Structure prediction request, 273 residues.
Amino acid sequence: MKYAIFGGANEIFAIYRFIISHSFNRAIIFYGMNETRFRTFCANFVILATLLLTFGIAFVATYSEQIPTQTVNNAIYEGNQDSGSVSLMFNVYENTDNVKKIAEILDEYGYKTTFFVGGVWAAKNQDVLLQLGADGFEIGNHGYMHRDHAKLNLKQNEDEILVTQKLIDSALSSLPDYQNCKLFAPPSGSIGNKMFEACKKLDYKVIMWTRDTIDWRDKDADIIFERAIKDVKAGDLILMHPTDATVTALPRILSHLKSQNLKVDVVSKVIEK
Prediction:
C-alpha cells in the first residue's frame, strides 16, 4: 500500500473540502435530512469538533510540560583502572571527632583521600578544614544543607554549591598550593537535569560512587569492611561516612587494599585519564 505525503496547507484544505463535500451529499441521502437542517447539523458539529480539538491541544501541551525530561547523566561513577588506586570518599555533615580520627588513620598508612563536606559543617569547622587541607587531603563540595538536588531549580543548585565553596575557600585559601578541585558529590546521590546544568555552568565534575558501604545506616564494622573490599579493583570510588563503625573498620580496609597492591588516593587523581 502506498501513502501520499502532503506537505502544504492548500493540499490539506483541498482534501478536507473534498471529504466534507462527499460526506455532506452522502449524509443527506442516508439520514433523509433536508439540506437546511443538515447544514445546521454540520455547523454545530464543526463548532463542537473545533472546541474539542482546541482543548485537546491545550491539554497535551500542558501535560507535556509536566513530563520530566530524561536526565542527561554525565556523572562519574568510577575512576581510571590504570591508576592503580582507589579512593575512599567521605561525605561529611557531622561527627567531627571521627573525621579527625579517619585523617589520622589514613596518615598512618601514608594515604590521602577526599572529604566531601557540607556547608553547614564547613561553617562550624573552619579549623578542621584547614588542617585537612594542610595535611594534603582533598576537599570536595557536598552542598550546603543536604538537600534533594534533583528537586531544586537551577539557581538553588548553584547557590548550594557556591555558598559551600566559599566556606571551603575561606578555610583553605591561605594554603600556598590550594586549588579548588571542583568536585561535587550530590547528597544522597540525588541527581537531576538542573543539578547537571548548574555543575556544567560552574565547571564542576559530578562524583557518584562505584561501591557504597551504606555505613550511615548499617553501623556494623564487619559489614562495612565486606562492602568496601568485595571484588575491589583499581579505579573504584568507595563511599563512606565518618561513623564510629567506619572508624573501626578503616584499618582493616586499608590493610586489605595494601595486600591487593592497591593504593588509596584523592578522587581527582583516581579519575584522571
Observations:
- The first helix runs from residue 9 to 31.
- Residues 9-66 form one domain.
- The chain has a mean pLDDT of 84.
